[in-house]
């Protein structure tokens, strides 16, 4: 017998389930949030439940730590500039193997084991993610000499062909996407998963963009969680160095997504059990809301 408190939770979820019928949610599952087997199971069940009650979850995954582990096994150090992995040709091969292979299939398998119908794709499938070489600009105070920094085969999204994603959504499938892009020149690009999630959310006019990571959300100068933050405040925190590293692409893509019409963007603590459902189906959101 469910207790009255679990019935209360279901009743709390009801208006959200009605409001979000048929709506698309882009959920970025960061490599740092894929730590504990119970949490991973919880994530998969959240996604399956969303689909069963009529929403369209689209998963974009990272896998930075998993890439780093394989690189170190072949004797290669990981190096990051502004949260982006410096990617030579050998690193690009490892990135494609780990993201398109291991991590993608692990998530697909998890979702399917919990009763979903997940299909794994990389940006090469259906020519989905078009990219060009990222022009990374030096941030003041970083001590780097040139205006534009060359970090190798790192890409930025130039276009998304979401036809395949829409087809899968319509057919009851759950797309699980690895952030690999293709250039006009045929080159393969390593793209930060946050940036792919943001662009995909904008292309699909998503209701929400959720970025699951390993912090409570965006922390301010005092180290406290910020419940909401806007564009001007983000730029101040970046200039002060309070937002740095892996949080930079997150806040930037979240701002771009809301500016492009995505309903809302949230940076969410993936270490909290069922963080996705807590954000989507309850009155108290978790993490930081990024608004224009
Ligand atoms: N202001 C900030 N608030 C929270 N985290 C921050 C902030 N600035 C930098 N970070 C860093 O960003 C990290 C999240 O980015 P990243 O490691 O790339 O995660 P993911 O693998 O989930 O994409 C945090 O663990 C933290 O170290
Ligand atoms: C260019 C770049 O940095 N690409 C990332 C792609 C994976 C990713 O984004 O993983 P997380 O979300 O787990 O950090 C990388 O090589 O690590």
UniProtKB/TrEMBL annotation:
* Pathway as given in its UniProt record: Amino-acid biosynthesis; L-arginine biosynthesis; N(2)-acetyl-L-ornithine from L-glutamate: step 2/4
Coiled-coil stretches: none
Compartment list: Cytoplasm
So what does this thing catalyse? N-acetyl-L-glutamate + ATP = N-acetyl-L-glutamyl 5-phosphate + ADP
Task: Could you list this entry's UniProt keywords, alphabetically sorted.
Answer: Amino-acid biosynthesis, Arginine biosynthesis, ATP-binding, Cytoplasm, Kinase, Nucleotide-binding, Transferase
The protein's predominant localisation is cytoplasm
* Keyword Transferase included in the entry's annotation: yes
A molecular-function term among this protein's GO annotations: ATP binding
Q: Which InterPro entries match?
A: AceGlu_kinase-like_sf, AcgluKinase_fam, ArgB, Asp/Glu/Uridylate_kinase, Glu/AcGlu_kinase, NAGK-C
| Site description Transition state stabilizer, residues in chain | 28, 250
Q: EC?
A: 2.7.2.8
GO BP annotations listed: L-arginine biosynthetic process via ornithine
Pfam families given in the database record = AA_kinase
Q: Which residues of this UniProt protein bind substrate?
A: 63-64, 85, 190
What class does this enzyme belong to in the EC scheme?
A: transferase
What domain of life does the UniProt record list for this protein's source?
Bacteria
Q: What is one GO cellular-component annotation here?
A: cytoplasm
* Recorded family membership: Belongs to the acetylglutamate kinase family. ArgB subfamily.
Mind telling me which NCBIfam families this protein's record contains?
argB
Q: What function does the entry list?
A: Catalyzes the ATP-dependent phosphorylation of N-acetyl-L-glutamate.
Protein name per its UniProtKB record: Acetylglutamate kinase
**Which organism does this record belong to?**
Acidiferrobacter thiooxydans
Gene symbol here is argB
């Amino acid at each position: 017998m469910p207790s009255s408190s679990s019935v209360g939770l279901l009743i709390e979820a009801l208006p959200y389930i009605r409001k979000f019928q048929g709506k698309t949610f882009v959920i970025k599952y960061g490599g740092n949030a894929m730590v504990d087997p119970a949490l991973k199971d919880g994530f998969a069940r959240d996604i399956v439940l969303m689909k069963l009650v009529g929403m369209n979850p689209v998963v974009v995954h990272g896998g930075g730590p998993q890439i780093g582990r394989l690189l170190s096994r072949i004797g290669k150090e990981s190096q990051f500039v502004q949260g982006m992995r410096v990617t030579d040709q050998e690193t690009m091969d490892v990135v494609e193997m780990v993201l398109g292979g291991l991590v993608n299939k692990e998530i697909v398998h998890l979702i399917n084991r919990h009763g979903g119908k997940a299909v794994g794709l990389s940006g090469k499938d259906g020519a989905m993610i078009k990219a060009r070489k990222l022009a990374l600009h030096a941030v003041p105070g970083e001590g780097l000499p040139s205006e534009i920094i060359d970090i190798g085969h790192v890409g930025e999204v130039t276009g998304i062909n979401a036809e395949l994603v829409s087809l899968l959504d319509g057919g009851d499938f759950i797309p699980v996407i690895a952030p690999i892009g293709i250039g006009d020149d045929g080159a393969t690009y390593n793209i930060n998963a946050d940036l792919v999630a943001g662009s995909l959310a904008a292309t699909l006019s998503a209701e929400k963009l959720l970025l699951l990571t390993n912090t409570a959300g965006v922390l301010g100068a005092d180290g406290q969680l910020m419940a909401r933050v806007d564009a001007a405040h983000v730029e101040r925190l970046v200039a002060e160095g309070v937002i740095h590293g892996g949080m930079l692409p997150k806040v930037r893509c979240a701002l771009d997504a809301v500016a492009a019409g995505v309903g809302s963007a949230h940076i969410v603590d993936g270490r909290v059990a069922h963080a996705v459902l807590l954000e989507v189906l309850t009155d108290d959101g978790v993490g930081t809301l990024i608004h224009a």
